[in-house]
Amino acid sequence: MTSDMRFGLFIAPFHPTNENPTLALERDFELVQWADRLGYNEAWIGEHHSAGFEIVASPELFIATAAERTRSIRLGTGVSSLPYHHPLMLADRINQLDHVTRGRVMFGVGPGALPSDAIMMGIDIAKQRDMMDEALDVLVPLLRGETVSRRTDWFTLDNARLQMTPYTRPSVEIAVASQVSPTGARAAGRHGIGLLSLGATTAGGFNALSSNWAIAEQMARDHATTMDRSRWRLVGPIHIAETREKARENLRFGLAEWLFYMTKVVALPIAPADVPDPIDSLIQSGFAVVGTPDDAIAQIDRLQKQTGGFGCFVQLAHNWASWENTKHSYELFARYVIPKFQGLNIRRAASLEWAEANHDEFIGRAKSAVISRIASHIEEKGTDNISPEILQNYKSA
User: Fold this and answer.
1) Nearest of 99, 76, 106 to residue 167 by alpha carbon
2) Alpha-carbon torsion 286, 291, 295, 296, what sign?
3) How far apart are CA 159 and CA 138, in angstroms?
């Protein structure tokens, strides 16, 4: 078991259309602040422009605000949809964020998730992954301070360069989104950047974890780069409480709206429509943890076994439960799950075991020291003012 695993949040975010969007955004900021106080390592913020649920249009704006309200948590674009942006403009904004956050920003990239976003901009959905590759080919060198010239059918760079040296040397950390297809893995390997497995706990995504990592490593060999498992992040949903029954009950708050959005809009078959209780399906498929801290530990163990090791587990923020129960779930995870994988209590447990194993000897020495001091006092002053209880203990010793 690794002792340096990191933990984070992936905030799309998901907010039903019957609530105040301003307050929903504020709650997202509060969630990042809560994670920062609990010791989570990172938070990733999405980019979406349609369909009503995922209401952050600019992860950069969100990150700039969140950075002012937090202390140490790293903040990533999760993800910037590359076909939607001119590469030089996007690189410049990320580079500025690198300075503003004093190196806490991470640059997550992808082709764009919602077809409705691309359609509004007149982007051919079939070309989005090719556009992502073309953009990434210039973004990586730009962010490393290189000068780039490139012409494609949707952007031109003519001796383009960033005017500021990056705060993080040699570059801000970059991670590419991956689900089932090898697109993300190929891009990660080609550039030697991180891999962000968004669908790690879906049936298809889970089964593709090992093969996608193998693809990334092969691409890295082909392009003289290297892949680093510590920069491999796996994303999955978790909600925990003190008991499994309580966790399930908490989900009555908002699971139905989330399932509607995922099945009717995003078109992901998360739970069959004809099941009596979708929570059973979420759990039995391995997609989600709805239970206790021990269940969360078992899920991460399962992912470690499937992958052979990864660097960071990222909880998908889903708003299935009320705000208070949501915060409590993240707190339970920080209290009882994170220490298990970061080795935070190894020395404490060893110390407790050592003290328990030597209890009789240590207590015996302590009693002898007390009796010796009582004897010295009696020898000097007699038994006057000695309580009967202390005197009896002395005599029986």
Assistant:
1) 99
2) positive
3) 11
For residue 100, being part of any structural domain is answered with yes
| Closest alpha carbon to 129 in 74, 180, 184, 170 | 184
DSSP state of 144: T
The pLDDT tens digits for 159-182 are: 999 999 999 999 999 999 999 999
For residue 182, cis peptide bond before it (omega within 30 degrees of 0): no
Q: How do strand 148-151 and strand 156-160 relate by DSSP bridges?
A: antiparallel
Say yes or no: 322 and 370 in one domain: no
Helix, strand, coil percentages for the chain (3-state, nearest 5): 55, 15, 30
One-character DSSP codes across 175-196: EEEESSSSHHHHHHHHHT-EEE
Most confident stretch, 105-119, 254-268, 368-382:
105-119
Strands 312-316 and 232-236: parallel
Residue 378, domain extent:
358-396
Asked if 383 and 289 sit in the same domain, the reply is: no
Q: Tens of pLDDT along 371-390?
A: 998 899 888 888 888 888 88
